[in-house]
């Protein structure tokens, strides 16, 4: 049997990434060019700048990945590319690069949903067992996804306003921390105690939806009220309190869904999956739940990368999914 090689391309936000995965699970090349330094001074991702960097980096990153893998394009079975959701101008660079190679080298093309990619980052470290529940927490998404089999995604809950990562980044801004704020809040939170009373949005009984805008506003108000009184809130206490509120809701709802849907495996996905507090709390809670495997990817597979896109692409390839050259970037693509 011949080995299967899938080339993945990811450009949905501020990372230009190309990776090659062997037989669905083994990384043989993984290159990520981050643009964080360029966006930092603006306090967030500037779409126009993101697109321009993707154009500049695309061929460089692609060549480096091919070199790492020591492969030719004739060895590649399919090209998997993030088609959405994300920034349209950023997505277009990856989609057009993928289409150009697919056309020029006559290689099958596969469109991948960015969130499917985040979830499939887990398959690089472990085989997946179904039914499976994924907690997807990133800068753009907060979702609980139920999977009864490979390639089948059912969103059972999602955020009604801000994504968890977005809330982290906004709270970080109020505390004058650099972008992206998540890692900084995480680090501060380890140094403080959650002494400040902040809200938790549980929403309706039985709902798996999330809401973080109320929490974000409460943090902002707490800081402003203190300023008006001429006081200063200890940033580590505020970070710890905010983080505790986010983790309480994420973990409680994940455990409820784990039980209701009787899943065999729970996987964590997305940039916020890098959060130390969230990882530790999930590990501690799931130790007490029998018959359920908890999988948490290593940090380099949590934030945006192309290995996860290639891993998802491999499963879709096996399922016979193919895109044609009409494939287009879709910033609002549904899972
Ligand atoms: O998945 P990702 O790389 O990009 C999107 O698809 O959005 O996620 C980026 C998000 C940012 O909001 C960043 O602040 C957050 O993940 N993040 C964290 C941590 N590391 C990254 N949030 C909390 N704690 C962290 N350690
Ligand atoms: Zn992402």
What would your notes on this structure say?
This protein is α/β, with parallel strands linked by helices and 335 residues long. It has two domains: 5-119 and 302-318, ATPase, nucleotide binding domain (Nucleotidyltransferase, domain 5); 130-296, Nucleotidyltransferase, domain 5 (2-Layer Sandwich), CATH 3.30.420.40. It is built from eleven helices and ten strands. The chain has helices spanning 36-40, 47-69, 88-105, 114-120, 164-174, 182-191, 213-228, 235-260, 276-287, 299-302, 307-318, and strands at 5-10, 15-22, 26-34, 78-84, 109-113, 132-137, 142-147, 154-158, 265-269, 293-295. The strands form two sheets. A five-stranded mixed β-sheet has the order 3-2-1-4-5, sandwiched between helices. Helix 5 runs parallel beside helix 7 (213-228) and helix 6 (182-191) packs across helix 8 (235-260). It starts with a strand and ends in a 17-residue tail after the last helix. The relative contact order is 0.19. Zinc ion binds at residues 114, 118, 138, 270-271, 304. Substrate binds at residues 136-140, 169, 182, 186, 275. This is tRNA N6-adenosine threonylcarbamoyltransferase. Fe cation binds at residues 114, 118, 304. It is found in: Cytoplasm.
Query: Helix/strand-derived class?
Result: alpha/beta
Oligomer: single chain
Number of domains: 2
Output the radius of gyration: 20 Å
Measured distance between first and last alpha carbons: 32 Å
At the fourth level of CATH, the homologous superfamily of the largest domain is ATPase, nucleotide binding domain
Q: Kindly identify the CATH topology of the largest domain.
A: Nucleotidyltransferase, domain 5
- Main CATH class of the largest domain: Alpha Beta
């Amino acid at each position: 049997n011949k080995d299967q090689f899938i080339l993945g391309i990811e450009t949905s936000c501020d990372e230009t990434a190309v990776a090659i995965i062997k037989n669905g699970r083994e990384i043989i090349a993984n290159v990520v060019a981050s643009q964080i330094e360029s966006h930092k001074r603006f306090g967030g991702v500037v779409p126009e700048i993101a697109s321009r960097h993707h154009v500049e980096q695309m061929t460089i990153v692609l060549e480096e990945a091919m070199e790492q893998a020591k492969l030719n394009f004739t060895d590649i079975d399919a090209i998997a590319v993030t088609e959405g959701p994300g920034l349209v101008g950023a997505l277009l660079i990856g989609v057009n690069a993928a289409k150009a190679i697919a056309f020029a080298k006559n290689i099958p093309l596969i469109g991948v949903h960015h969130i499917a990619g985040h979830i499939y980052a887990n398959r690089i470290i472990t085989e997946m067992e179904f039914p499976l529940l994924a907690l997807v927490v990133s800068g753009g998404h907060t979702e609980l996804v139920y999977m009864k089999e490979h390639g089948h995604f059912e969103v059972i809950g999602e955020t009604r306003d801000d994504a968890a990562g977005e809330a982290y980044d906004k709270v970080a801004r109020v505390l004058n921390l650099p972008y992206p704020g998540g890692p900084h809040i995480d680090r501060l939170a380890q140094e403080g105690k959650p002494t400040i009373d902040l809200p938790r949005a549980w929403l309706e009984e039985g709902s798996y939806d999330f809401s973080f805008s109320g929490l974000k506003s409460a943090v902002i108000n707490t800081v402003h009220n203190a300023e008006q009184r001429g006081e200063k809130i200890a940033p580590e206490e505020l970070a710890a309190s905010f983080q505790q509120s986010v983790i309480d809701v994420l973990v409680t709802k994940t455990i409820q869904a784990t039980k209701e849907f009787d899943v065999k495996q729970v996987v964590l996905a997305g940039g916020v999956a890098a959060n130390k507090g969230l990882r530790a709390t999930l590990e501690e809670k799931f130790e007490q739940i029998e018959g359920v495997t908890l999988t948490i990817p290593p940090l380099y597979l949590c934030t945006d990368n192309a290995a996860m896109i290639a891993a998802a692409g491999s499963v879709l390839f096996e399922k016979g999914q193919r895109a044609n050259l009409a494939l287009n970037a879709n910033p609002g693509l549904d899972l």
